[in-house]
Design goal:
With 158 residues, the protein is mainly β. It has a single domain, classed as Beta Barrel (Lipocalin). 12% of the residues lie in helices and 44% in strands. It is built from 1 helix and 8 strands, in the order H-E-E-E-E-E-E-E-E. An 8-stranded antiparallel barrel has the order 1-2-3-4-5-6-7-8. A hairpin with a 2-residue loop joins strand 1 and strand 2. The longest helix is centred in the first third of the chain and has 19 residues, at 2-20. It is globular.
Length: 158
């Protein structure tokens, strides 16, 4: 009797450990589509809307900023330095590679005027559909920075 109970408990623990490593739901390509808030020093700094293009890539543009009249003053192209940041595309050319991986894209940092190679993933391998991690890097992904964005909900307003 004790052997049977111990074996049943062992099998149950084994299957529970397998389930713990699995995503809650399968991540779909359009799961990144929507509005996302970025933060700086704990404050809502901007809202970026990510959308799918007709070519099947994903892009994102600034739709709200904490300083709405701010210009793209650091842009390396002098002809673009007078444009408003709100409305500026800062994410481009991302493709869904499967398994919670949107990569091959570029991210523009308006604070520095630089553009970086980038990839994005939903947090916890897709278990947290409201947190997006973006990594911008130079050369290899070890040489970069990760930002965490939060999905805008109906109560957030932006």
């Amino acid at each position: 009797m004790n052997k049977s109970l111990a074996m049943a408990a062992g099998i149950l623990l084994f299957f529970l450990s397998l389930l713990q490593g699995m995503p809650a739901v399968a991540v779909q390509p359009d799961d990144v589509v929507g509005k996302w808030m970025s933060f700086r020093d704990g404050r809502h700094h901007g809202t970026i809307e990510i959308y799918r293009t007709g070519a099947g890539t994903y892009e994102g543009k600034i739709v709200w900023g904490e300083h709405p009249g701010r210009l793209d003053e650091k842009n390396p192209d002098p002809s673009l330095r007078n444009r408003l940041l709100v409305g500026t595309m800062i994410l481009r050319d991302f493709r869904y590679q499967g398994e919670n991986d949107w990569s091959g894209g570029r991210i523009y940092d308006p604070d520095s005027g630089h553009e970086y190679r980038s990839y994005m993933r939903l947090d916890d391998d897709g278990k947290d559909m409201n947190t997006l991690r973006l990594r911008g890097y130079v050369g290899i992904s070890l040489l970069g920075r990760t930002e965490k964005w939060t999905r805008v909900t109906a109560t957030d307003g932006n």
